[in-house]
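User: I'm curious what two different proteins look like when written out as structure tokens. Can you demonstrate?

Assistant: Sure. I'll show them one after the other, since each token string lines up with its own sequence. Here's the first protein:
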Amino acid sequence: MSTTPTFEAVGLDAGSVWTRCVICRLEEQRLRFLGCGAARSQGWVKGLVGDPTAVSQSMLAALREAERDARTSVEAVVVGVGATVRGANCRGLYDLGRVRAVEQRDVNRAVERARRVVLPEDTMILQMFPQDFVVDRHPGHRDPRKMIAGQIEANVHLVMASQREHDCLVGVVNQAHLAVEETVSEALAASYAAVLPEDRREGAALLNIGAQSSELVVYYGDALQLATSLPVAGDHFTRDVARGLCISFEDAATIKHEFGCATADGTADNCLVEVPSREDRGVQRRMLNRILESRAVDLFQLAQRELVRVGMDGALMGGLFLAGGAALLEGMCEAAEDALRCRVCNALPVGIEDWPEEICNPAWTTVAGLAMYSAKLKSQHEIQRQSYGLLGKILK
């Protein structure tokens, strides 16, 4: 009697402030949470690996905690890539030679030709997402197979990253005695965990706001329209507070998390916030929130410009989802709604059984998506293995 195989699905989110690891189990097409771990990140500079050994040690610390929690050991992980990610739309034309029914191999060749682009120096293709197809100059077809045509053209969105930083990140993971199953854009992983297919079809975006990097992805009609990095992240909010209130970066981070809000309306003028290292006087909470609001407006205006660039301004019927640790700042959803004029909510992980309530927040969405992506890879590999096994039995 055969039993359904089980697999460990592991995601590793190496952030600039926190490194997070989640271990899940894929069993009978269901993904169940087993354990998680988090450790303070070391060795990052502006979202890039500065000290590989320190980054590797942070990964090991998060992994060991997750292994103890899950009571299992891990050998391979899916890892997120963030700061250097950017996307581009490309086209690939394939002539069928004569008018006939379009086959899968024709679709594959058109997509492959779209992939053959001259990449800038230090650039690699991280992922590729087909958008739609032009069949004999008639655009907008999602699946051209079995259609009668003489040529097809594939429109794809290429997600690219720095080859040097990618290889450095993989090397750091290997230094932590782990194999890398796959590398995935952090924002795409977060959207994989939090944005439902029906939201994507109506037009949806996810903004992953980390400490040192932010990434935006936009979907419409099931297709990825945009993947890019934005030059504003969580640390910009903290630096603005430090400069505006003439306090240290550490004090600014503390009062931002405890008392800060991305909207200043409703804050009383006489409300004061005590600065931990200064006993002589406090600072006005309204002034603190005005500083944070100004930076939030800056961030969401940058996002709006990207939406305009791809023709998605005012088209996010599915809404905007906020992920990342910096999304936890109070008032971020309200500030985004004011700037983008669409529904905005926190990106929370869905689809993993027994997910703990205490980590059901935007800071853990990316690593949840990475674990889900790992499960998807293992499920596909198992289907291929079983099909090969069945073919072997037939040929005997």
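Here's a second, unrelated protein for contrast:
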Amino acid sequence: MMDARSWTLTIPEGMASRLQRHLFPGDHDEHGAVILAGVATHGGTLRLLARELYLAKDGIDYVAGTRGYRMLRGEFIRDHVLRARDERLVYLAIHNHGGSLSVGFSEDDLASQQRGYPALLDITGGMPVGALVFAEEAIAGNLWLSPTQTMAMEEAGIVGIRRVIRTATQRRHRTVAAEMYDRQSRLFGDAGQALLAGMTVGIIGVGGVGTLLVEYLARLGVGRLIVADPDRVDLTNVPRLPHATLFDARAFLTAPGRPEWLRKLGTRWALKKVDLATRICRRANPAMEVVPLFGDITDDSIARQFLACDYLFLAADTMQARLVFNALVSQYLILGWQVGSKVVTGRADGQVNDVYSVVRPVLPGEGCLLCNELISAAKLQEESLSLEERRRQRYVDDPLVIAPSVITLNAVAAAHAANDFLFSATGLTLPGTATDYQRFLPRERSVVFEEVQQRPGCSECSAEDASRFARGDARRLPTRMNTGKEVIRHGNDSGKPRQAVVER
């Protein structure tokens, strides 16, 4: 933490709304609160992740000040500083000033910090402490890393179905988008185009759905894209991977009738899907930075590359990928979408029983994939078995049972998810917009909306003490470590794995 060059704060939208109503109830007075935040570090930036909010009651916890206008009462501070120490969270004291587009600490505020914060640092045992001051559309922050080292907050991000950035001064910077973006920037403005160019977006899985997302995001002008996939292009991928060619699949080596050794060689030499994604980006948006990761999201070294993302898309449909994605969203407060399409056929007769595309927003603290029974413990266990073990046990999801896949079904899901991202990132999503899952049913030409559930006490997204919500670097992700073992965890990771440790 001492090496951090800047710091930011991320606040879930529900928590931010509660705090805003408390600070600005319409009485034009000053009010107080405390946030306890988890910590994540990446690339020299210290990210604080708002986990717990405590509203100070006027006249009880927030009282007339002895040297300033108002102050948090000593007992209120003590209780929450001690909790911050015990839970290894960062204590942030909050109050508000008048005004709207800019805010800053008063001389009394700074003097109060000088008097009290060195003592708070002694109590927290090395965890930073800080302060925030709010205006209606601006937030300033000051973080004490030591009794002699302080640092001003760079920005605060409010994350929900739309993403809002708050700084100490909400200046309207004049930007001009490149001519190639003229038509789309007429929708969300040159400032919106600049926002897209400054974002990092991650796509987990660049198969049929993920590759379409790559195409859309690159052409929208996203500045940086991180993609991960462990597979290479094969002949059956070509009809549903944009810009994939027979040569990418090395079809001249893998065609039926070729010797087995030659087909294996062709498979080994086929183009990596992440390299196809990179090629798509280069052609669509030469200015885009692409980070291709040839590997599986369940590998810890791969998963950690996504901590820098502002948005995440999950376009891989294994339960282990869902588990890691779900943890990234909850643990690091990253906005996410799970996207896919499926054709369900009868195992015996091949009859088409169901066809659909799905777009599922997964928002920090608002109900996760685990809450909505979209992570199956049984399938997690199945996926931990080898291919031969699956064959012997005849699991329905054996990789040899090839599921149908069609580019148009994938395109429906990818386009709607990319649209959600676009409107969220540029601030065009209306406040209060529903976050229901969407299921598109082409045979009925209908759309079904599924209400998102949040299970009390969820080990992933609730604020229960044992959950991973907003814990940042204090919790391990449910990934494979470099130990020769694969750890399959379902739920909280506060100690030993709950389900299985599978030797590899």
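A detail about the second structure: Residues 407-425 form the longest helix (19 residues).
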